[in-house]
Fold each of these.
Amino acid sequence: MTRQPPFLSDEARRSRLARRHLLGPAHRATTVEQVTEALVGLHASDPATVYLTACARLAKPSAAAVDRALYEDVTLVKLLSMRRTLFAVTEEFAPYVSSSTARAIAVKERATLVKHLREGAEGWDEARLAAAEQAALAALAARGEATTAELSLDVPALRETILMSPGKPYEARQSVGSRLLRLLASDGHVRRCRPRGSWLSSSYPWALVPQWPELPVREAKAEVVRRWLAAYGPATVEDVKWWTGWTLGDTRKALADLGAVQVGLSNGPGLALPGDEHDEHDEHDERDDSDGEPWAALLPALDPTMMGWRGRDWYLDPAHVPALFDRAGNAGPTLWWRGRVVGGWAQRADGELAWRLLADLGAEAEPARRAITAEAERLAGWLDGIRVTPRFRTPLERELVS
């Protein structure tokens, strides 16, 4: 008789979020590096997300602690990687992300930039691009750190522009420098330094970085998936493929290299790391997922927990997607109660935090409101008047601030 794989209920998966994603009050971290390791990587397309994501999970929230990890100790680095998205990962994990994903993206970025230069700028080819790169790196080495505009003073070629989408209604010009520095970052030659301005700023200088060791691609992919399954598993093959942005073949190969085991999920067959099909906590009542205390959380736009899976029905009601996501699929700020997304929040112009429940919580509505209110006060406390607007606006977030 064929043995059926273990089944993990939606309740068990939601219970894991309190512990593995450090969302239950009893499970919060003491360092930014611990948060980053627990989530594998922090979404960094919006500068504010890294800070809000980390502080939501720190026992003592501190923007200064995130600053220190990113720009002083440099224990976190940002890489254009999974799904061609900017992630902050630990310095120790960065070589695996680079070899498995970022370097392949850099190859495509280079080909795309060469194509755009040939079509939208005069006198550019691969040889001139390579010369401009070397000149930019030399200028950066001399300066120590510099913005793209500052480097353009030393390397005039960076001031030239590319006409993007010529002839289209949305045609626009971009500086060669902005594209070239992004390419150098993708290749692992440079990193973003402390922004000029507050931690919300997108204006930052660049600095050279030591080259990471080049790991075998297959080994690096297996390690990325191992860490992801430890944090987000069990999950479907489609979830892993979506999160990494890899081909289906590469995804399946990495899962096979890990010896991932089959489990049953409410949305079909899933996979888990060997030994992780069962968890002693999974059999507990869902209400005991945070050492006996039901938990609430206010998570920011693009938070890794919200964006962790392609299949989200086990924690997100599909009816709430239009309010909480923009048209490109970017998640806005969300309210969580015991492992489910139950609403959204926003910060108004005067700094006040506004939130709205979208889910009918029945008898749990009042305890959920009290817990969410407490979390909102905790968030407002460490923000201390700083105003945060998500880079990717969603319908509910816009409505709450209007």
Amino acid sequence: MTNAIDAPRFGVNYTPSKGWFHHWLDFDLDAVRADLDSIAGLGLDHLRVFPLWPLFQPNRTLIRPRAVEQLVALVDAAGERGLDVAVDGLQGHLSSFDFLPSWTATWHRRNIFTDPEVIEGQENYLRTLAGALAERPNFLGLTIGNEINQFSGDPHPDPDRITPEQAAAWLRRVLAACEQGAPGRLHLHAEYDAAWYQDDHPFTPAQAARIGAVTAVHSWVFNGTAQRYGAKSTASDQHAAYLVELSKAWAQDPHRPVWLQEVGAPAPHIAPEAAGEFTAATVAAALDCPDLWGVTWWCSHDVDRSLADFPELEYSLGLLTNDQQVKPAGRRLAGAVAEARSSFRKPLPRTTALVLDLPVDAPKRSTCAPGGAFFEAFMRLTADGARPTALLAEHAADQQHLTARGITEVVTVEDVDRS
């Protein structure tokens, strides 16, 4: 089914200013309200929140009612401020830390993607969260978990290895549980960019672009983009837009919405004094992508430096400081949001398609990664003003497909290399 996009949404991934995601341990609704006031003050319309799975479901058959009540209270407080809320379920993985319940680890070590009892527990948990929020008008829907694909293979130190077929089966089962709990909401899954860039990764581009209500992409230029091409390069400024357009190669719906669910300005890859400029350039590039559902920045507040052992870049990703002061990236995002709302026009179709010669299951996809031939050809076209999109080779001669996407010119990597 095609979903019409009138205007993109603008939001933020909510990182509590007090206690980070450990705030669920001693939940303080007044502190949350202060954070939400500062988020609403940026002119944003939604946030993405992260229950910690082991705290909400400490035993396979125990989903803590008080924890669920606190999540509902947060969603209600957001609604009072005009903010919609998307909820992630299986947390899972956040900012380099893993949060798995004890019933999946050590003496109870079980594969979280294939063990029947673990999957049943996950289904019950996601169904419970969705059901608790189903009647809230500002509840957008559930994302299964944050970049949970990182548990499925390298470079994770202790992966739960699976096949692409097992990954797809797991996605469909747990998304069905979300739908059972809250029918008709925006339920989806979201992977970090291994799904698009890493050869033989079990979570695939086709799964991302075909399973769930929308396609989600997470754009981080510390993945080699900024290191290889520079912080102020076309590749860095356009990386998020590139992922949005890359995802469309595998979509069966020619106008499937794409959610830029995570993007941020990581230091030192993006210098603090350049964060505002990078933010504006990234948002402008994303808004030039047809069928963009929205942009959700990472993240709302800095990580308090009293908390130990985070990678250095995680401490300063916030649009706001821990004492609610707006940072340069926050000011630029607020300005970009205000401008987009006052003057947004749907972008024209991207008429030039760069052919991606991969099978639909794409076991070898490193050509799409920074340094890969497809990535570099796409960025050369972009630098020349072509506004490219991505097209699987199997569709290059399919006029019906091309017409549905508004494509009038098809070029290959070799064409770009010769030009």
